[in-house]
User: Fold this.
Amino acid sequence: MTDSSLRAPRFALLAALAAAASLAPAATTQASTVPIRPKPGAVSAADPRAAAAGAEILRAGGSATDAAIATMLALGIVEPQSSGIGGGGFLVTGDETGHVDTFDGREAAPAKAGPQWFWRDGRPLDHNAAVPGGLSVGVPGNLSLAALAHERHGRLPWATLFGPAIRLARDGFAIPPRLRSSLELFHDVAALDPAARALFFDAAGTPLPVGTVVRNPALATALERIAHDGPKAFYSGANAVAIARHVSTSPVNPAPMTTADIASYHARALPPVCAPYREWKICSMGPPSAGGIIVLQVLGMLERFDMKTLGPASPEAWHLIADAERLAFADRDRFVGDPGFVPVPTPGLLDHDYIAARSALISRDKALPEAPAGNPVGMTSVLGMGTPVEEHGTTHFVTVDARGNVASYTSTVESGFGSGLMVDGYFLNNELTDFNIVPDRDGKPTANRVEAGKRPRSSMSPVIVYDRAGHVRLAGGAAGGATIPTQVIRMLVGTLDWGMDARSAITMGVIMPMPDGIAVEAGSNLEPMIPALAAMGYGRVVALPLRLKANAVERTASGWRGAADPRSEGATVSP
Assistant:
């Protein structure tokens, strides 16, 4: 059966995404897939101006990491609802030797945060009430991540990477349809700060029309200062004072953040999570992101099935994906958090025998009646089951340089326009609402409870795929909160099992677990399968117009080819 309503509060996000989709028509940009000659490289991003910024850096001889940093900075100008220097992210880099690095720039809770950070008068705040203002702001991580990655893999001077973004901020950019719809959808947050109202709204409080040129001189000046002085210009001095003051004196939900909180932040280089899938090796981000674990678990559970023969038109294939996702999400909710604070059993969760045992629970033609968390080696009995709300103000972009190095980067401010607080022309994130607002379950602490200095769990899933010869086959990722790993899984099954090009795989719909059934993207190739899926025993099968967004770059016989989601204004640009 179908049902357009969503009663389960855990997946209120899906309802928000559906509402957002109704305000965002299909993209008008048609540069989604561009054949690329082998030598220059490519950039795929959610906005053509940001992709062009990365391509400019590649033309100047920059590395894939250099181009990714320039793309991130530019997206903070033209896609402020999704990312920027006031947010954080995860970056996975890989080269032709098979070496993979991952960088954790996830935002961190201030020193005075604790398990009842989001409680008032003995009761937890509603998620929507916790989003706007200072209480939800984590110390931003994107610039620290960029500096660490540049130190490891940069080729051009740091300041050079800021040039395209500074020009965009100084000279202005035309508002695209997706930004305009986001200004309407997230109006109360986007218009919370007077500086933001002055940039994006008219005197009556109405979002400026599509095509209006917006100039952001405050952000241009801030970027010039960071370009000249390095990341210290962000994490100390006047900028740190401004962040701490805005958070601590916010008219909504003020919270105690200090300059010491900001100065103490450091991005981390962490080990990647990698696993084989058929003839390929897939690498992604480990905790505090749960996305990589979910993707690798699902693919591992699917490996015993002949997905190629089933094909994309088979309801059975999508049922197998859905039940594998249900099992992986259950493990996520129970076990994954910031590994600096909780003992995440990552090796146990990715163990071949463990995944095989989880796969054995899946029937080819009947839905699992329940999908509980498993018992991986290294698990702890002191953790309770969590019920998180995920980020959905997010973007993904991919770069590849002339040497075949790739960078797959997911960046976020969490909800649309983050906390709504603006400092020097950029929005501060609301990343702390990715923690479990209710810290304990059944008398046990959850892995993703709020703690001082801790980084909230994420679903971000940047991936790099290697072929059997050790060459990069594909790199990609997605935006869309809890749908992120499901979008990446769809992309990988589509390209690796079903022989699609990356854009065709991205264009397919997604299937998404819910507590009492599954959701499929309305209007996609999956909606006609609803009767067949319902007959397999899912409690509900819901069609929703989800606000999805993915980007990838893949190697083909003729060279690199980029792919961007036709649902967005995404584009691929070559140098």
Observations:
- The radius of gyration is 22 Å.
- Confidence is low (pLDDT under 50) at residues 1-38.
- Residues 503 and 514 are 27 Å apart (CA to CA).
- The longest helix spans residues 315-335.
